[in-house]
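Contributing new records

If you add data, match the layout below exactly. Sequence lines come first and carry their own label; structure lines follow with theirs. Keep one chain per record. Anything else will be rejected by the validation script.
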Amino acid sequence: MSPSHTRRHFAKLAAQAALGISALLIENPAQARPTKSKRLPSSKASPGFPKGFLWGTATSAYQIEGAVKEDGRGQSIWDTYAHTPGKIKDNSNADRANDHYHRYKEDVQLMKALGVKSYRFSIAWPRVFPQGTGTPNPKGLDFYDRLLDELLANSIEPFATLYHWDLPQELQDRHGGWESRDTPKAFADYAGYVAQRLTDRVKHIFTINECSAFVELGYGNNSIELAPGLKLSQRRLNQVRHHAVLGHGLAVQAIRASGRAGTKVGPAENITTCVPAIETPENIRAAEIATRELNGGYLTVMLEGKYTDAFLAYAGADAPKYTAEDLKVISAPVDFVGINVYSPQHYVVSADDTHGFALVPFPPSYPLMNSNWLKVGPEALYWAPRNLAKIWNVKEIYITENGASIADVPDAKGIVYDLDRIMYLRNYLTHLLRATSEGVPVRGYFLWSLMDNFEWSDGLANRFGLHWVDYDTQRRTPKLSASFYREVIARNSVV
């Protein structure tokens, strides 16, 4: 998930919700790979990542699969939204997208060439239950059966996400989507069915991708939208928040009940990352406090089983309606936590007030990547997992998304020399290495994304991939960053 112009808005919303506040080069360097005899060994002075660290890439179903009307797939809210005039910046849609539904074997070979050992993908709910509930589509999981077999045949471990925003349209029409408690219940039924069918091969399942993003930007009163593009009152929005995390908890329970022994489950959340502006003990503590409070409606309630006092005080009469049993379900024990980290949402200093922290404003000169929401703050990839482990004692963490949108332009030979993406990744991974070197339990990293794809409200114009996709021919071409990532994986260290 990386919709342009959205995370900046979400960061502001999260805070308010919680507290009210050239020619000589070789011909094709993107495909070149040094031979084993030429590869430089990792220096003892530059320690690598832990042994067994899982390097992977990530995608989502709606963004790459296409085939939206094949084999009984039902309509999703994103099919509806993308075909609504004016909603997608370049007027594109994902009816074909990357045609991954038919080209998955080719795409698995892209992963194998990178040397990745894991792949995070999502399952399209409307393929499995076209109406969201009821009788499952007999062909619904056939594609994922084929994909899983292909991944495992190439020694790539699958990590499945059950919900990456493609809600069956019927649930939106019938219940108002996540406004109703019926939707989390339907999600749990879907989760249990998938777990029963696929956990012979899938050992790690993420329940929901970024509750915070699809709730705030799909249902909130914002200038930037995601599907279904509603603008609810604060009271109704708070209830959608609650139903989203309730859906997570119910899915955890369903996977436990229906999955095979040894199946691991957890969320993949867009953590609000709070970084101490200066590393002093006081500011570090302030960043910890801010992290807990500013994730109050999502990760905090998932991991603590309660909404923070500040969250409820700010919501006031608009607070969500819930029961003690709801909170118990929402906080059902998880095996790991996945976090999506692109930028620091906030820099923090200590404050002598009831909050204990203050948010430092970003100056106009602050550096950005191609998207104006994607602030360059490599230290986010240290502080996000560090604070997650420190505050909630999480023992197994995955970076489920990290990457950068670039103004990628192929040269005359069709090669993309994306040095800016390499700069971004090298700096961020350096800070992730700091975290693992200090014992922060990050077990794996999924780079967003394997290839360019449909980037939600930005359409096909915004590119995050290691592989350039020509959407007319569907040709995939490795960018220079693919060579960089291949070396990182081969050495298990920053290069």
